[in-house]
Design goal:
Number of helices: 11
Strand content: 15-25%
Order of helices and strands: EHEHEHEEHEHEHEHHEEHHHEEEEE
CATH topology of the largest domain: Rossmann fold
Structural class: alpha/beta
CATH superfamily of the largest domain: Response regulator
Strand order of the largest sheet: 7-6-8-9-10-14-15
């Protein structure tokens, strides 16, 4: 069976580094499928680069769904791009395979979510910070829904533990004029800095904060580490001398030692190592393509309704560990992890959940984990 799928990822623009990593993850999976990894299926990709522009995403989806009749698209990184294109997937009875961690508070019949839900990355970060008595935070984000919602979730968790958010600022995507907020952070001396900046804004901010801290005689890595739910191996090379000592909450790091990840990392390094190590976004895109291929094989067609039914409860032995699609919300059961960045562009894993956690995009569960691993996570005790 031959099918066409769209690849809608920004390989250029302010967050092009992440987009290129995601495209590379998709390429690896497509090659594995076409070489017999998922039966007799062959995938032909139709790549479109929106260049980080919301209009570019809209134009790309209109072309893929409306003009080419494609039924499945792997793509979008930002939540704003996902929100913009979702109505078109509903209009054309097509499926978006969304390969990015995100802020939650959404389930859609036309989306399969292969990145972490908020209870799999924001809440574990909150618990990690509170365990180390870091209760005074400074929040800096890009001005769109990902930052607003993640900051809100973490703020509520910190406040519930009698902590405080010392300051909070938002900047347009791509803005690098961040000196004044860096000066304010150093003056306020928080316990940690939580950043939801993306792309060039993130790179500029971290380098400015490290440089200004050193000039003030402060060891920023220990005084107020930068914490994130999106910083990955794809971005560490752009931080240059400021790449180490940052805390990232994720479900995948390239340093994981397992047969599945060793195989994935080896294939990645053979083709893409000169740009960066494998990252969570690359792995989520790799996972999305394989789950799509598996569902099409099970359905015997690439029809939207048939594939949507076939993907429910689907399992895949991903580089991060076995992943299962939750039939109730089409998110993935995943294992939360916390990593600390190193100078060589990788992360040391400093915390790992003992088992995969059921996705809770609306943060509706309030009990501690049970034996059936199906309930959520209390923010703090």
């Amino acid at each position: 069976m031959d099918i066409n799928i769209g690849i809608l990822l920004s390989e250029s623009g302010s967050y092009g580094a992440v987009g290129r990593a995601m495209s590379a993850g998709a390429q690896l999976a497509v090659d594995e499928v076409n070489n017999g990894g998922d039966g007799n299926l062959r995938i032909q990709t139709v790549p479109i680069d929106p260049r980080g522009s919301l209009q570019g995403y809209i134009d790309g989806v209109k072309h893929l769904l409306g003009e080419l009749g494609v039924k499945h698209v792997v793509g979008c990184y930002t939540s704003s791009s996902r929100k913009e294109v979702l109505p078109y997937f509903e209009k054309y009875d097509a499926m978006l395979w969304y390969p990015s961690h995100y802020e939650g508070f959404e389930t859609a019949e036309n989306v399969v979510y292969t990145g972490a839900a908020p209870n799999q990355h924001v809440i574990p970060l909150a618990r990690y910070l509170l365990d180390y008595n870091r209760r005074r935070g400074w929040f800096v984000g890009s001005n769109y829904i990902w930052a607003w919602e993640n900051n809100r979730i973490l703020r509520e968790a910190i406040n519930q533990a009698h902590g405080e958010v010392v300051g909070e600022r938002y900047f347009p995507v791509g803005d690098t004029d961040l000196n004044y907020v860096v000066d304010q952070i150093i003056a306020d001396r928080p316990d940690f800095v939580f950043t939801t900046l993306i792309g060039s804004s993130l790179f500029a901010f971290i380098k400015l904060l490290r440089s200004a801290s050193e000039a003030a005689g402060i060891d920023q890595k220990t005084a107020f580490p930068v914490c994130s739910c999106s910083l990955s191996e794809a971005e560490l090379p752009f931080l240059e001398d400021a790449a180490d000592g940052h805390i990232s909450s994720s479900v995948y790091f390239s340093s994981l030692n397992s047969p599945a990840n060793n195989c994935f990392a080896s294939a990645w390094n053979a083709r893409f190592q000169e740009e960066s190590r494998a990252s969570a976004d690359a792995e989520a895109t790799y996972l999305a393509v394989h789950l799509l291929a598996q569902a099409v094989q099970r359905a015997g067609t690439d029809g939207f309704a048939e594939v949507r039914e076939a993907v429910q409860d689907a399992r895949f032995k991903a580089p991060q560990g076995e992943v299962t699609i939750d039939r109730d919300n089409l998110h993935c059961w995943m294992r939360p992890r916390i990593g600390r960045s190193r100078t060589d562009g990788a992360f040391d894993v400093v915390y790992e959940s003992p088992f995969p956690i059921r996705p809770d995009p609306y943060l509706t569960w309030t009990a501690e984990y049970g034996e059936d691993r199906s309930v959520g996570l209390r923010l703090v005790k």
